Amino acid sequence: MNIGLLETGSGHWNALIWFIAVLIIGAGVIYLRNEGEEKYKKGTNQTKPFLSGNPEISKEDSHVGASHIYWGFTEALKNYYEPLVKMHTGSINDYSGWIILIMAIIFIIVGVS
Amino acid sequence: MNGILMHAPALVIALPLLAAFVTPILGRFNYKKISWFVSAVFGVTLLLTLLMAGQILTNGTIVYVFGGGEAGLALPSGYTFPIRIIFQIDAMGIFMALITAVISFLAAVYSISYMEDYSGVDKYYTLLLLLATSMFGMELTGDIFNFFVFFEISSISSVALISFRSTFNGEPAEAAIKYMVISSISALMVLFAIGLFYGQYGTLNMAAIASFMQFTKLDKMALILFLTMLAMKSGAVPMHMWTPDAYSEAPSAITVVLVATSQASLYALFRIIFSLYNVTLNTVTVGWILIILGVLSMFIGVTMAVIQKDIKRLMAYHSISQTGYMLLGVGVGLAVLANPAALASYGIKAMEGGIFHIINNALYKGLLFLTAGALFYRTGTRDLNKMGGLAHNMSYTTLFYIIGAAAIAGIPPFNGFASKLIIYESVYQFNPLLAIIAMLVSILTLASFVKIFHSAFLGPQLEQYKSVQEVPKSMVFAMAVLSIIIIFFGLFPNLIVKYIVHPAVMALINQSHYTSTILGGM
Amino acid sequence: MIGNFPFVAVIMLIALGMYSLMFKKNLIKIAIGLTLLEGGVNLFLITLGYRKGGVAPIYTMAPEGVKMVLPTPQALCLTSIVIGVATTALVLSIAMILYKQYGTIETDEIRRLRG
What we know:
The complex is a heterotrimer.
Chain A: E1 5-7, E2 12-14, H1 15-35, H2 59-62, H3 71-76, H4 78-87, H5 92-112
Antiparallel strand pairs in A: 1-2
Chain B: H1 2-6, H2 8-29, H3 34-59, E1 62-65, E2 86-89, H4 91-114, H5 121-140, H6 144-162, H7 171-201, H8 206-212, H9 217-233, H10 242-249, H11 252-277, H12 283-306, H13 311-335, H14 340-379, H15 395-408, H16 415-430, H17 432-457, H18 473-491, H19 493-509, H20 511-519
Antiparallel strand pairs in B: 1-2
Helix pairs in contact in B: 2-3, 2-5, 3-4, 3-5, 4-5, 4-11, 4-14, 4-18, 4-19, 5-6, 5-11, 6-7, 6-11, 7-9, 7-10, 8-20, 9-11, 10-11, 10-13, 11-13, 11-14, 12-13, 12-17, 13-14, 13-16, 13-17, 14-15, 14-16, 14-18, 14-19, 15-17, 15-18, 16-17, 16-18
Chain C: H1 5-23, H2 27-48, H3 72-102
C-alpha cells in the first residue's frame, strides 16, 4: 500500500486514504440527513431566515460587496494596516530606496558575522 | 533522433529564439495563424524539455559545450579553467526548465483566444518567445555572465509585455517603468558582483568559481549583491512593491509567465548560494536572512492581500506570500547545511518542501491568474466590487477557480497541501514559531480566496452580466490542463517528490558533484 | 596608489546613480541615474581588464615579446553597453507614453498603483 504515501519528515500523508475517509464520512452524513427531522414543518416561519425580526431584504440587495468583506478584521487591525498601506507609496524613488536600505542592512549583518 | 537528443540543450534555447524573429515575418502573410504557430513552437520545446528531463533523471547531469570540444577545454594552454560557454543542466536546472516549458506553453495556448482582438499580436508573441528563451537560458546555463545576459533579456522583454496594453490608459506603462527601473538596478548590481568574481578568479564558469571559492571580503560583497538583487526580483518583502503593480497590469497570460520568471530568479539565488558558496559562507547567518525574508514575505504579503479590491492585485500579493514559503523551506535547509545530523533529520525535508512548493506555486498560481484573466475577458473589469454572480454563467471557470483556490490554501487533497505539510513538519523541528506563522498565513490565504469567491462568483446574477458566456475553448483548455496536473500532484505527491524534487535538492546540496562534472578531468 | 583611482571613480559613479534613483523625481533624471550606474559598472569591468604594458590580442603584425591581454572584460563591457542602450531606450519610450497619458513625468504624481 505504497501508492501515494508521502513521507513528510515526521509523519505520513496519503491523499487516497483521505479520499476514502471523506467518502465514508460523507456517506454517513448523507444517511443521517435522509433520516429527517420530525419537528420540521414546511411552509411555516421555521423555513425563513431570522434577521432580528426585520423583514428579509431581496437577494440582489443583500449581496455583500468586496470592500465590505472582512470589515471587522481590518477595523480591529487598524493600527497594523494604516502604516503598512502607507508604506506602499507607489513612487519609484521609494522602491529603489527600499532596495538600497535592505542591501545596507544585509551588508551590516553579513559583514559583522 | 539521437542527434536531437544530443543537441536538446541548445535547441531549447535556439528554437524559441529563432521563432521569435520568424513570427513577425509570418505575421505579414497570415496574421491570424501566428498564434497557432507559436503554440506549436512551445509544444515542441516542451517535448524537448521532457526528453532532456528523462535523460537527466536516469543518466545524471548533461554538459553541453557551445562550439564543441571538451567541457574542460582550457585554451590558451597553461590555463586551469574552462573558457567555453557551457550549459550545465542538473536535476535542479531541469526541474525549473520543466516549469518554464509547461507554463509558457499554456500561456501561449491561452493567448490564442485571449489576445485575439488586440492589434500588434505578432510583437506580443515575439516578446513572449524571447521571455521564455531567457528563462530557459537562466535555468540551464553554467556560465555566470551568460546568466546575466539572459537575466537582462528577461527583464527587457517582460517590461515590454507589461506595458502592452498601455495604449488604452497609463497604468500598464506606470507598472512597466517601475519594473524597468528596479530590474535595471538589480541587473547592474548582479553584473558588478560578476565583475568581483572575475577580478578575483579570472573565470566566468560557475563550476570553476565554485571550486576556487575562498569567501574573501570581495566574495562576501558579491554574495550580498546577489542575495539582495535576486531576492528582490523574486518579490521578497520589503522589496516587493513592484510585484502587485507589474502582475496586475500585465495581460493575464503574461502574468502567469512573470510568476515563472520570478521563480527563475529565485532558482538563481539558490543556485548561487548552494552551488557557488555552499558551506564556505556562514550558513546560519545567511540561512536566517532567508528565513526572515521568507516570514516577512509570507505575513505581509497575505495581510496586504486580504484588503485588496482588485482581483489580480490580490493574487499578486499572494504570490509574494507563496514565495515566502519557498524562502522559508530552503532557508531552514541552508541554516543547517553545515550540521550533517540536522540536515539529514529535517534539513533535506525542509528543502524538499520549499522546492516542491516552487512547482506547485507555478501551477496553482498560474491557474488562478488564468481564471482572473477569464473573468476580465468576459466582464472587462478587475474590480471585485463590480463583479458578482458569475458562477451562473461561467461554470468551468468557477470549477477551475475552486481547484486553484483550494490548492493555494493548502486544502487536501490538492498539491498545495502536500508541500505545505512537508514545510510545516520539518520547520517545526527547526523552530516551532516559524511553523505556526506558516499555518496562520495559510488560514489567511484561504480567507482572501473566499473573498474573491464570494464577491465574483456567488450572489444573484447581475443585470449587466446576463449575457456573459463561458470563455473560448483555448482558454478552457489551458486552465483544464493546469487543473489536471494539480489534482495529479495532489493525489500522488510521493512520486513527484521522489523522482523530481529529491534529485533537485540533492543537486543543490552536493556542491562537489556540481564542480567535478566540469572540472573532473583537470 | 594611483592605480586605485578608477575604483574610486567607480564607487562615485555608482553612488551618484543610486542618489539620483532615490531622490530625483523626474523620470528623465532617473534614466540618467540608471546610465550613471551602468557607466560605473562598465568602468569597473574595463579597469579589471587593464594590464600595464599589455597589447590588444590581435595576432596579425603583433610586436614580438609583448604580453597580450585577455579580452574577456572588454567583451563583457561591450555586451553590457549594448544591453544598456536597449534599457535606456525602453525607459525613455515608456516615459514618453506616461507623459501622453498622465501629462507629467514627476514620480510623485505617477502613482495610481499603490496600496
